[in-house]
Design brief:
single chain; 3 strands; DNA polymerase, domain 1; 295 residues; mainly alpha; hpI Integrase, Chain A
């Protein structure tokens, strides 16, 4: 049953392999728990009190509420699937309420911090330096996700139209604009990349010619921004966050930012408006007939 559910996520829902592995782990752990604690080996027979016992076990094992909610979300999707294929009439989680979680405060980099990093990278002219500069520029100028950046292929770049084709979540494609300055860095990088022996068709490679990987990209961003920022989190996601926040601060339309980020709904994009509230207030005061024009 779990196997057919995972096939459904992969083939019909177009979930990434990484996401499917997470679902598989959550479901396996739950199945193991109910088998051990309740001698129940068929997940379609599970009742909510048994799920509740698993939640208690997860809490006592020092899992955060956010982590527990994610695991229960995997169960919810599984039982929704059983309803879809008419094995169950009602999900055992139909009345479940998620655990309360504290809202994560994502503090974006300032424009000065990003500028400082790029200025520092201007002095690096070897393959690694130019590659890393391009990585920072692409994150900040396009707002793409780390996995999206890693999976850009050489054929995805269109210099004539100054766009890059991005393969996003659930295999959804979108085109993101390329700044002229970033295009120049990209061309410089491609010259140096051509001198590296590689069979990879991906844009970003290591000096050994293999496709770059997630931990390397994280280390690159963390390393450069640690030199200019005292913020706790210094990751590719914070650069994506900075991209959206700075655009909104400058008056960009929320729907346009949504499309650039590859969000499926405005609700996902609206989290970025919290950081731009001061800028929004200034626009409001200047635009409204009764506003404080001195703001």
């Amino acid at each position: 049953m779990i196997s057919s559910f995972l096939d459904y996520l992969l083939l019909e829902k177009k979930y990434s392999k990484h996401t499917i592995l997470a679902y598989n782990k959550d479901l396996f752990n739950f199945k193991e728990f109910v088998a051990k604690e309740f001698d129940e080996h068929d997940l379609q027979n599970v009742i909510y009190p048994q799920i509740r016992s698993w939640i208690v076990f997860l809490v006592e094992s020092n899992n955060s509420n956010r982590t527990i909610n994610r695991k229960i979300s995997s169960l919810k999707s599984f039982y929704s699937y059983l309803q879809k294929i008419e094995i169950l009439d009602v999900s055992p989680l139909v009345k479940h309420k998620s655990l309360k979680t504290a809202k994560k405060v994502q503090i974006p980099f300032s424009v000065n911090e990003v500028t400082s990093v790029l200025n520092n990278l201007d002095h690096e002219n070897d393959f690694i330096g130019i590659r890393n500069k391009l990585i920072v520029e692409l994150f900040y100028s396009t707002g793409i996700r780390r996995a999206e950046l890693i999976n850009i292929k050489l054929v995805d770049i269109d210099f004539s139209s100054l766009v890059i084709k991005i393969l996003g979540k659930r295999n959804k494609e979108r085109l993101v604009p390329l700044l002229v300055t970033t295009s120049k860095t990209l061309q410089d990088y491609l010259v140096l990349r051509s001198a590296i022996s590689s069979t990879s068709n991906h844009l970003f490679i290591t000096e050994k010619g293999i496709k770059i990987y997630e931990t390397l990209v994280y280390r690159i961003i963390n390393s450069y921004f640690s030199k200019v920022s005292s913020k706790v989190k210094k990751s590719p996601h914070i650069l994506r966050h900075s991209f959206a926040t700075h655009l909104l601060n400058e008056g960009a339309d929320l729907n346009s930012v949504k499309e650039l980020l590859g969000h499926s709904s405005l609700a996902s994009t609206q989290v970025y408006t919290h950081n731009s509230l001061d800028a929004i207030k200034k626009v409001y005061n200047k635009a409204h007939p009764k506003g404080n024009k001195k703001e």
